[in-house]
Design a protein that fits this description.
The protein has 207 residues and is mainly α. It has 4 helices and 2 strands, in the order H-H-H-E-E-H. The longest helix is centred in the N-terminal third of the chain and has 34 residues. The protein is elongated and about 120 Å long. The two termini are 69 Å apart.
């Protein structure tokens, strides 16, 4: 077992110095009270006692407020909001945060699939977004990042199924197949509506 020598030394030293300071502070009021008692000046005793009592009350209030502020600040961690708006931080810090947010927004926009077909070559090349110290077009016909391939997301330049999210389509596909099968199912040849009084079964509208 590791013995925390530094913690023991620190605690012992702090306690000893604190006791020395406490007794040193008691020398002055004790001397005043002793002189007042010796000279039979009861009024001075009350004055000295009242001043030191008021000092202790003020010290207690300051210490309690410090504990309260520390506990309140700890309860706000983690914060449910980021102090990055105007007034929360300095002007230079706010300017830097705004620049980085714009850069992140531009990168997120560039990371999305885009239409690289010839039809889109003449559209909106004027939209610019600053990333770092350079400016690049968001709708460049031949961007520097090349063709982006997102699994489960068809390209906007696809000729048959542009910009299709396959995950929700695949999740809904069994229901679509079942509904189509019910709508195309022929009438049961064993069921003769002329010989039976039972109603003809209809497809479930929920399907």
């Amino acid at each position: 077992m590791r013995v925390p020598f530094f913690r023991i030394f620190y605690s012992t030293t702090f306690t000893v110095l604190g006791l020395i300071l406490f007794f040193a502070l008691l020398i002055t009021p004790a001397n005043l009270v002793y002189a007042a008692v010796k000279d039979r000046q009861i009024y001075d005793i009350f004055v000295v006692s009242g001043v030191f009592l008021l000092t202790l009350i003020v010290i207690g209030l300051l210490y309690a407020s410090r504990l309260y502020n520390n506990r309140r600040n700890l309860l706000h961690i983690p914060r449910d909001w980021s102090p990055v708006e105007k007034g929360d931080v300095e002007r230079k810090v706010r300017k830097l945060i705004a620049e980085k947010l714009e850069e992140s927004a531009a990168i997120a926009t560039k990371a999305r699939p885009r239409d690289l077909s010839k039809k889109a070559e003449g559209h909106g090349s004027g939209d610019r977004a600053r990333t770092g110290n350079t400016r690049s077009s968001i709708n460049d016909p031949l961007p520097s990042w090349g063709i982006i391939d997102h699994p489960g997301w068809s390209s906007p330049s696809s000729t048959d199924l542009p910009n299709i999210h396959f995950e929700p389509v695949i999740a809904e596909l069994p229901n679509l197949i079942e509904a189509k099968a019910v709508s195309l199912a022929p009438t049961d040849p064993l069921h003769d509506p002329t010989l039976s009084t039972a109603p003809t079964p209809l497809p479930d509208p929920l399907v």
